[in-house]
Amino acid sequence: MATKGMHVVVATDGSKQSLAAAKHLMSFADPEKIAEISVVGVISPYASVAFADDISGRDDPDQSFRDAANDAVATVAGVLEGWGPKVSKKVRSGSPANEIVKAATAVGAGLVVVASGGRGLSETILLGSTAQRVQHSAPCPVLVVRPAKRKKRK
Amino acid sequence: MSDSAVPKAEPESELRRSITGRLLFFYVLGDVLGSGIYVLIGAVAGEVGGAFWAAFAVGVTVAAFTGLAYAELATKYPRAAGASLYVNKAFGSRALTFLTTVLYLSATFAAAGSLAAGFARYFGQIWSLPPALLIMIVFIILLAIVNYVGITESVVINMAMTIVEVTGLVIVLLIGAIYVGQGKADFTVLTNFSSGDNVVFAIIAGVALAFFAMTGFENAANVAEETIDPSRNFPRALIGGMAAAGVIYVLVSMSAALVVPVDTLASSDAALLEVIRAGILPISVSVMVLVFAIIAMVAITNTTLVQVVTQSRILYGMAREDVVPAAFAKVHPTRRSPVVALVFSAVVVIALLVAGDLLNRIGLQVDIVERLAAVTVVLLLVVYAGVIVACLKLRGSDETSDTFRAPTALLLVGLVGNVVLLYYVISTDPGSLIWCAGLVAVGFVLFVAELALGKRDRPAGVRRGEPIDGKKDH
User: Fold this and answer.
1) By the 8 A CB rule, do B98 and B451 touch?
2) By mean pLDDT, which of B151-165, B216-230, B333-347 is the weakest?
3) Is B474 part of any domain?
4) Is A90 close to B312, i.e. CB distance below 8 A?
5) Phi and psi for A114 in degrees, rounded to 5?
6) Span between the terminal Cα atoms of chain A, in Å
7) Cα of B9 to nearest chain A Cα, Å
8) What angle do CA B267, B270, B275 make, to 5 degrees?
9) Between chains, do A59 and B152 touch, taking CB under 8 Å as contact?
10) pLDDT recorded at residue B89
């Protein structure tokens, strides 16, 4: 069907896992078949920490939550740039899962890439994660990148 | 995928904000309404007498003038950091900024404690078996978990809780209206003061408590950055929300005073329930009491949740500024919530509640709700006064055509009001200062902990807190 390739939405919550998810996409997907990638970060204004950026390496206390979101989105976009597809950056605001789905719908995405850190108790018992909620209502296939098994730390 | 599905000309980084003026209005209203009227109306009635609506009116007015300063500063500096940011911008003094932050943090601890105790009182009206202290502790722990999970992020839940809160107060108004309609109301009660000789003092005493009912509006600064068209929406929603809360407070006070004898209100643990118990509505009283107690608990929960969010947010910000240990800035890898900050806040609030319980056990009668409310008010009055001064000092700097400008005269009235109230609360209740000192000490202990332990994560040559100037400006 597609002649120009699909539009992929890569979501980031500023976590290392979301950066790993973007890299995972690059590890197997064919850049020829992707027309554009939108990196989407979502700020949750009512949350304790509206956005936490663990990946840009910037540690500026004077930074606002929106700055943090912009930095994280730019970091993920930086990884994807040069791979082939056009990369665009989007920062939205609201409930994360909801906004990711909206962003995917708005661009007519063919794939959404999200990270899920969930192995622990909280993911199973407490309501489920953003990734789960995205899967439920995304307009397209969803790639949930789970963390690689690591040796137990701590 | 066909191209037609793609909206054209998306900007490279679209600045999508989500808080509309209406959402912000409901956020302010919900935050303000839950904090006092359900918990403290009996105490205010006891201080003032039948005219206690006047105390709410004055309290709302003083708070709204402070709200104007917040509106001006939030449109100037939309970063979600509130009082400490404003004081920092105005005075550039690290010590003053730290003090403001700690005072504000302490106020949210005390407020959460008072609200938890108020929650337990309404809970006790439905099911009196579990000890109140247990209810308070479970309540605080549950709220921390709710925050960890991230339910508070939901705009819909926020809105729904606010609607429930308003519904509860509408029920009280309805009862008052029916009572008046039946011709049973004695309006002279509305001009009665309990201490006949000094009306002004009676009102100030009530205002000091009623002020607690208005606190929470400053949390609107949390979402300033995500507000659409802030210069227009922020002042309107903030002041509008406060004014709406004020009108509701005054009407609810009048309604309660007309329907229930003032001494019954004053001696009740859950005063608004007395209005329901008057049995004016043609519905079974026991059903209505149950419904209303649940509404009251939802209202208190909503406001306490915002306090808990604010606590962990302040600690997160402080950790980033390097004034408390870095662990407070760690967010959970997937939940993105500051786990250490949430746990710590819950522990501090529970410690307050346990301390109150212990004091009662050894025979020192402490009304934990009123005491912690007074502590909150003392701490917040200092912060509010600081914010107004900061607002006046920052006049002329960082102003754009979009900055909301608050009327200077009103700010000055607000400042005087804050200082008068502060003086009054401290002079009548010096004991609250001990609690304030205890809470502020917690902040300093964290600072010392950071001094002792926090050297590792700072590059050589960078002084404590220096990154503010060091990183951004160069």
Assistant:
1) no
2) B151-165
3) no
4) no
5) -130, 160
6) 50
7) 11
8) 90
9) no
10) 93
Which burial class, exposed, middle or buried, applies to B440 when counting CB atoms under 10 A from its CB (0-12, 13-18, 19+)? middle
Residues 6+ apart with CB under 8 A from B221: B70, B73, B74, B80, B81, B82, B83
User: Which among B48, B24, B38, B93 is positioned nearest to B299, based on CA atoms?
Assistant: B38
What band does B214 get if pLDDT is binned at 50, 70 and 90? confident
- From A92, which residue of chain B is nearest by alpha-carbon distance? B16
Give me the domain span that covers residue B268: 18-396+407-449
**B315 within some domain:** yes
DSSP B362-426: TT----HHHHHHHHHHHHHHHHHHHHHHHHHHTTTSS--TT-----HHHHHHHHHHHHHHHHHHH
| Chain A residues 69-128 with CB within 8 Å of chain B | 70, 73, 88-96, 99, 106-108, 110, 115-118, 122-123, 126-127
Specify the number of domains making up chain B: 1
What are the φ/ψ torsions at residue A46 (nearest 5 degrees)? -85, -10
Q: Which of B77, B19, B26, B371 is nearest to B229 (CA)?
A: B19
Task: Note whether A66 contacts B152, CB cutoff 8 Å.
Answer: no
Q: Can you give the C-alpha Rg of chain B in angstroms?
A: 23
Let me know if residue B9 belongs to a domain.
no
pLDDT digits over B402-422, tens only?
789 999 999 999 999 999 999
- Rounded to 10°, the helix B199-214/B52-76 angle is 50
Q: List the structure tokens of B370.
A: 């009123």
d(CA B372, CA B112): 9
Give the domain CATH number at B226. Answer: 1.20.1740.10
Residues of A in contact with B309 (CB under 8 A): 46-48
Cα A66 to the chain's mean position, in Å? 16
Residue with tokens 């006092």: B36
Q: Which tokens hold the place of B219? A: 């949390």
Q: Which two tokens stand for residue B408?
A: 């200077």
Neighbours of A32 (CB within 10 A): 9
- For residue A66 the two structure tokens come to 């929106």
Are A45 and B18 contacting, i.e. CB atoms less than 8 angstroms apart? yes
Report CA-CA distances (Å) from B320 to A64, B183, B454, B466: 11, 61, 12, 11
Rounded mean pLDDT, A17-37:
94
Q: What is the pTM of this model?
A: 0.90
Residue B63 lies in a domain: yes
Unique residue bearing structure tokens 């105490």: B43
Biggest CA pair distance of chain A = 50
CATH of A9-145, one of 3.40.50.720, 3.40.50.620, 3.50.30.30, 3.40.50.2300: 3.40.50.620
Distance CA B362, CA B347 (A): 22
Per the DSSP assignment, residues forming a β-bridge with A41 are A12, A91
Reported ipTM: 0.87
Residue spans of alpha helices (H) in B127-214: 132-149, 155-181, 199-214
DSSP state of B226: G
B175 CB-contact burial (10 Å; exposed 0-12 / middle 13-18 / buried 19+):
buried
Which candidate from A15, A49, A116 shows the least CB-CB separation from B313?
Answer: A49
Cβ neighbors of A63 (< 8 A, separation 6 or more) are A71, B320, B472
**Which among B78, B79, B334 is the nearest to A129, CB-wise?**
B334
